Amino acid sequence: MSITRINTFRALDDHVDELKKFLLALLPTIRASVGCQSCQFLQDQTVPSRMVIIEIWDSIEAHHDSLQHVSQASIDEVRTMLAAPPVGGYYQ
What is the tally of structural domains in the chain? Predict the structure, then answer.
């Protein structure tokens, strides 16, 4: 049975476009990860600084394994664009 991972992000007001570009650039890597069934980026149309990535995985473990492809430099870079820490959870 698959698992859905929902990740929410809130950009600093002066980094909305930059965060969107950054997150969109991650999608091919996520989609190419073993166990990823789909990955979608959405941006709130009322509050553009709010964004989500919805991922569907074969398992939580597959998602965890995919994180090895995210560099510490990327994590550090995205933190400079965020108004609050990202929030993620697994749903079924």
Answer: 1
Total residues found in the chain within this entry: 92
Give the start-end residues of each E strand in 1-92.
3-10, 36-43, 50-57, 87-91
Model-level pTM? 0.93
User: Cβ distance 17 to 31 under 8 Å?
Assistant: no
pLDDT of 28 strictly over 90: yes
CA Rg value for the chain: 13
How far apart are alpha carbons 17 and 57 in whole angstroms?
A: 27
DSSP, res 34: T
Domain of 32? 3-84
Tokens of 4: 């859905």
In a domain, 43, yes or no: yes
